[in-house]
Structure formats: C-alpha cells, structure tokens
TrEMBL record:
This protein's name: ABC transporter ATP-binding protein
Lineage: Bacteria, Pseudomonadati, Pseudomonadota, Alphaproteobacteria, Acetobacterales
Keywords: ATP-binding, Nucleotide-binding, Transport
GO CC field: plasma membrane
GO terms for biological process, alphabetical: peptide transport; transmembrane transport
Protein source organism: Rhodovarius crocodyli
Record's signal peptide: none
Family: Belongs to the ABC transporter superfamily.
Length: 317
C-alpha cells in the first residue's frame, strides 16, 4: 500500500520565548522523527507520558508548527501550511469530553462541524448526523443530550462521529481507550475496526497501553524523549523487541492473562530540559556502556521493516 502520511526528520520546539528583552529556550518535544504511514493500516505510536506523542500528532495535523523537517500527505508537501490542505487528517482528542462543548447539545456540536465544512442545508446535516450516530452504535436521540449526560464510552463514540462526519482519510486516535473499563474498551476497539473497514480509514493509534497496541496495530513506532527508538511490524516488535527501552516497556506492561509483570522501568523519564548526552536512554539502561554516554545511536536495520537506534541491539536478544 502507498504511503498516505509521512514525516521526515521532523522536529518541534515548544515553549520558546523570543523577544528583545527576554529569550527563553524551548524544549525539543519531537526530535528528528521520521515515520511513514501506509494507506489502510493502523500505525501505533507508543512511549511513556511526555515522550512527545501528542505533539507529533498536533504537528501532523497542522495545529503545531514544526521547527524542522517535512510532512507529506497523499504525496503533497504540507509542511508549514497549518490546517490548510490537511482536512483529510482528523484527530480524536485524548480527553473525549474536551472535544465537546459542555453548553451545547451533542447534535449542535456535530452540526457545527458540518457547517464549517460547507454543508449548508440543515435537513442534510440532520440526516447525516442521524446516520452517523447510528453508524457508531448510538441512538440518534442522543443528539438532544448534553455531553455530561453521556458515559465515557458514549462520549468517545460521539467524538468519533464528530470527525467521521468530516469524511477524513487519516484519523489520529490519541489514547482512544484510556480510562475505559475492559468491556467498554473492547467495544470501542471493535467499533474502530468496523469504522476503518466501512470508511476505508488509516489510523495513527497513540497509546501507552501495549496490550491494546499489540492487538490492533499493523506497525508500531516506539518513542523515547522525542525520538523514535524502534520501529517495526507489531508482530516482530512484540515477538523480538531489540531496543532495551522497548524490552523494558514490554516487561513492565500489565498482562491480559493476569500473570506477574516484570519490574517497572527504573527512574523517571528524564526532562526535556536536561536531555542526557549520547543515547538519551543511557541513565536508565541496563546494557549501557561508556560509549552510550557519548555517542548518539542512529537507526540501524534489524530485520525487514524493523529499525532500532541502539549501539547494542544485537546483544538485546
Ligand atoms: N507549551 C509547552 N511548552 C513547553 N513544553 C511543553 C509544552 N507542551 C508540552 N510540553 C512538553 O513536551 C513534552 C511532550 O508532551 P506531549 O503532550 O507531546 O507528550 P505525550 O507523549 O503526549 O504524553 P502523554 O502520554 O502524557 O499524553 C512533555 O515533556 C511536555 O511537558
Ligand atoms: S545505546 Fe546504549 S544506553 Fe542506549 S539503549 Fe542501547 S545499550 Fe542502552
Ligand atoms: Mg499525549
């Protein structure tokens, strides 16, 4: 399948203040990230809190300006263009409630999106909203309710309906199952799978729940402190992870079968304001050598479609 959206050496600086009197350096929340997402696939992005997943998503969407690198969408360079030309990419918010206006009935929120996208006829908007609410498994009468009258699972379905009404090609799902109990999670994942088939969607699936990523993603990129440290097919990455960080994440992940998990990752994720020298994972890595503190690893090929940025990936088997 051809690439539908891709990033090349993408970097994003946040929080910098530049002025005549005061200069405050920013942090590089996304640092030279290259990914290539193929049409129709579910591409996972995993990593601990603060590693830059949402920043990467916002930049691909054009809501955040990149400081370096290139973004391509359906073959066209859309870098530095803001949202213009990126209507085919839509985002399902990490916090489903935050995407819905608390003072507006669900139907009014959904209609507003359609109005902005040029559906002028009110009867057509109402018909599309009814159909879409039904498609995401909700009673169309829910259009009359306010967001606080919905459950977390229903809010997620409404959030999905809201963006599917805009007929996207690529949907960025930011932690789509966070905070849901297991049965609701399973229902949301089934719905996402059905919607992908029905509307021919491509998903960028952001999550720190590895068991979910393993189940739904075709390929996965693992991020650490703004960098992609390992990338490969989900099957290979979970069966034979090569980066010590990926291995530690997997060992610490809760098991579906309830079996004991390995030790939690040592230490806190380091701060973007003091990025470690050399390999940025070295203060937490059990395989680190003196070289790791001075030399930054570059991605190497560890197998077909499998890349890993670690000096010692051959030893991590
Ligand atoms: N406006 C800002 N100014 C400075 N730093 C910021 C700003 N916004 C975010 N950051 C920092 O950028 C980093 C990346 O944040 P981001 O929200 O992309 O992480 P994330 O991987 O989505 O985390 P989570 O899993 O918690 O959602 C974090 O360290 C965060 O503190
Ligand atoms: S480069 Fe060194 S510190 Fe970094 S992950 Fe590999 S072994 Fe660990
Ligand atoms: Mg986030």
């Amino acid at each position: 399948m051809p690439e539908i959206i891709g990033a090349e050496a993408l970097s994003v600086e946040l929080g910098a203040k530049r002025g005549l009197l005061k200069n405050r350096p920013g942090v590089t929340a996304v640092d030279g990230v290259s990914i290539s997402v193929n049409e129709g696939e579910t591409f996972g992005i995993v990593g601990e809190s603060g590693c830059g997943k949402t920043t990467l998503a916002r930049t691909l969407l054009g809501l955040q300006r990149e400081s370096a690198g290139r973004i391509t969408l359906q073959g066209a360079d859309v870098s530095r263009s803001g949202r213009v030309g990126r209507e085919a990419v839509q985002y399902v918010h990490q916090d489903p409630g935050a995407a819905l206006d608390p003072w507006w009935r669900v139907g009014a929120t959904l209609a507003e999106g359609l109005k902005i996208h040029g559906v002028a006829d009110s009867a057509e908007r109402q018909a599309r909203i009814r159909d879409m609410l039904a498609a995401v498994g909700l009673d169309p009468a829910l259009a009359e309710r306010y967001p606080h009258e919905l459950s977390g699972g229903q809010q997620r379905r409404v959030g999905l309906a809201r963006i599917l009404l805009l007929r996207p090609r690529v949907v960025i799902l930011d932690e789509p199952t966070a905070g849901l109990d297991l049965s609701v999670q399973a229902a949301v994942l089934r719905l996402l799978r059905d919607m992908r088939e029905k509307f021919g969607l491509t998903y960028l699936f952001i999550s720190h729940d590895l068991s979910v990523v393993r189940r739904v993603c075709d390929r996965v990129a693992v991020m650490y402190l703004g960098r992609v440290v390992e990338e490969g097919s989900a099957a290979e990455l979970f069966a034979a992870p090569r980066h010590p960080y990926t291995r530690a994440l997997l060992a610490a992940a809760p098991r579906l079968d309830g079996a004991e998990t390995g030790p939690a990752l040592p230490g806190d994720p380091p701060s973007l304001r003091a990025v470690p020298s050399g390999c940025r994972f070295h203060p937490r890595c059990g395989l680190a050598t003196p070289e790791c503190a001075t030399r930054d690893p570059v991605p190497e090929t560890a197998g077909p479609g499998h890349s890993v940025a670690c000096h010692r990936w051959r030893d991590a088997a």
